[in-house]
Queue: 3 jobs
Job 1
Amino acid sequence: MNTRVLRTELRRSVAPWAGLVLLAAPLALLYLIPGLWWTGTARWTAQWTSMALWTRSLLILLWPVAVGLGALQGLRDHRSGTAELLASRGPPATAPPCSPAPRP
């Protein structure tokens, strides 16, 4: 049963496409933009700051893509009418305990 549900979700959801986009985009950027990795490994491993800055730049470029794909998934959940399903769940574990009803 779980494999059937998983197969349906993978077919209908944005998750496989989001994974492909978020994997292909940084690889394309690394191959298309000349940087320290084109000159050899000596400069890349000697300067950790430059590697951190390039990683930060990739994250700055990719977070809007991830948020947009998450919004598409949210639209799918909204259209499928899962509001009552989400409303039927219990309170979170961090919620304060309920106070007992007052006695008459």
Job 2
Amino acid sequence: MNLLENYLLSLQVNTYNTSISQVIEIQTRIWQSIHSGSSYAQAMLEVLEVVNHSPQQQHQALLKQVLQLLGYSAQSQVDNHLLIAHKRFSHVLNLS
């Protein structure tokens, strides 16, 4: 298993159900992992080379990686927004 898969497991996302609520749950868990100093989050931040960036930038970098692993597409937008898309839906997520 690679580092990203280990990080996903550490987030304890136990069900895979493509939905806005899943994206929001993942967003919340990533934010919590950054603020709690999770060793899995820290390792991913180092790999993504965003350790010295703001927490918001770290959050966005981790969120994009995790969502892509789960089959979503994620594109940065202006004003700290992230366009999340899947075969069944698309949604703009405000990361502020």
Job 3
Amino acid sequence: MKIKIIAGLFIFAAVFCFASCGSKRNQTKTEKLEPLTIDIPDKRQDGSLTMVDTEGNNYLQFDGIIHIKNDGSNGEPIKIVVYQNEAENYEFN
């Protein structure tokens, strides 16, 4: 009985020793991570605004520079301004 206990402890110690030696080798290898860069393109200001009637037909369509003054996320009414047929070099203040 004593021999089985001593043999079991010896096997446990050997397995523990091999397992810890293997993990030390992995700890010495460090990988250098590259920094993450996220490119977000500038928002576009040109586009079109289409008004549709109750039957699904196009009622009016405006093409030009679009400015969203308020998108309604703050609880206030939505306000969108469309500058129709503006030049491409138009700058909004």
